[in-house]
Specification:
With 223 residues, this protein is mainly beta. Helix content is 4%, strand content 44%. The protein has 2 helices and 19 strands. Strands 1, 2, 3, 16 and 19 form a 5-stranded mixed sheet that branches. It has a 5-stranded mixed sheet with strand order 8-14-13-10-11, with no helix packed on it. It has a 4-stranded antiparallel sheet with strand order 15-4-17-18, with no helix packed on it. A hairpin with a 6-residue loop joins strand 13 and strand 14. It is globular and about 55 Å long. The N and C termini lie far apart (48 Å).
């Protein structure tokens, strides 16, 4: 049976005093149409961009992306443009968090266990985050120009609330899939149950912050 990237089903759009609510569901598939577990689904991000821009109010306090057990938590962090992300280190070893993503490249250098260091993200787009010490440490910061975003629940269901009425674009992003996007009108849109085939590995090939291979064939140094 061939995989169809998306199928049409009703989604509830409930107007609430010039605001609307959007409900739907995201499903992920691997080769052979095998349905993915909840951990992959909850790493997706669903966001709505109104045609008429709305004011952005990034939080005053930094958001955390923690390094623990040689992993980033959360693995995927959607934020509003202009937000600051702190990278606390909960491991008794050194980490060096960095990104070479255009417009949001940064290098926090080596730092020990503690509150870590932070970075303010000024440009919208996808930021791929790595550790210069550990090859398998991969995370993503999705910098958005809209406050209307959410990650699905474990069953794939999502709910966007407080949406402005009118046209805009609905997008679903997941690290291992091609982004899905469609123009809709709130609250008059017909809904979508969105099925995404996963085509990328969980740990993408990448170099260190100097553009060179990691020591040990990709395992990095150990501290």
């Amino acid at each position: 049976m061939s995989l169809v990237p998306m199928s049409l089903v009703p989604i509830a759009l409930v107007p609430q005093a010039s605001a609307a609510e959007l409900r739907g569901k995201v499903e992920l598939y691997e080769k052979g149409n095998k349905r993915l577990d909840s951990a992959e689904v909850t790493n997706a991000v669903v966001f709505f961009q109104p045609k008429s821009p709305v004011p952005l109010r990034p939080p005053k306090q930094p958001l955390d992306m923690i390094t623990e057990d040689k992993q980033f938590e959360p693995r995927v962090l959607p934020i509003i443009q202009g937000s600051t992300v702190q990278f606390p280190n909960r491991d008794p070893i050194l980490h060096n968090v960095f990104s070479v993503s255009p417009g949001n490249a940064f290098d926090l250098g080596f730092y020990k266990q503690g509150e870590g260091k932070g970075w303010r993200f000024e440009k919208t787009g996808l930021v791929r985050v790595y550790c210069n010490v550990h090859y398998d440490m991969v995370a993503y910061v999705l910098v958005l120009d809209t406050p209307y975003f959410v990650s699905p629940e474990a069953d794939g269901s999502f709910r966007l609330t407080g949406l402005p009425e009118g046209p805009g674009r609905l997008t679903v992003w997941q690290e291992r899939a091609r982004p899905w996007s469609r123009q809709i009108s709130v609250p008059n849109a017909s809904g979508l149950n969105i099925a995404l085939p996963l085509i990328r590995p969980r740990v993408p090939k990448h170099t260190n912050k100097l553009g060179k291979p990691y020591p040990g064939g990709g395992r990095g140094r150990r501290y």
